[in-house]
Amino acid sequence: MNLSLMKSNSGRDFFTVNAVQTIKNSEDVTLSKVTRAKKKFEIVGKCPLCGHSVIEGQKGFGCSNWKKG
Ligand SMILES: [Zn+2]
Asked: 12 and 27: one domain?
């Protein structure tokens, strides 16, 4: 094996592209995981009555403060 090949431009470019692709892939996975973990409900706006977040849950839209009010 010729080690000088690893220092060639083509070799470095190949590594860089691979690294960036790997980072992009891992970011996608991380983002989707975080999104799924944190966003159980989609916040669609603010409640006009109490100012709390209006969320879209399994049963539809609703104020996140409806239990307390
Ligand atoms: Zn409300």
From this structure: yes
- Inter-residue contact 59 to 52 (CB < 8 Å): no
Answer yes or no: are the C-beta atoms of 9 and 16 closer than 8 Å.
no
Q: How far is the CA of 48 from the centre of ligand 1 (A)?
A: 7
Span 16-66, pLDDT tens digits: 777 777 767 776 766 666 555 555 678 889 999 899 999 887 778 888 887
Residue whose token pair is 């049963």: 59
Residues 44 and 29 reside in one and the same domain: no
Q: Report how far ligand 1's centroid is from the alpha carbon of 54 (Å).
A: 7
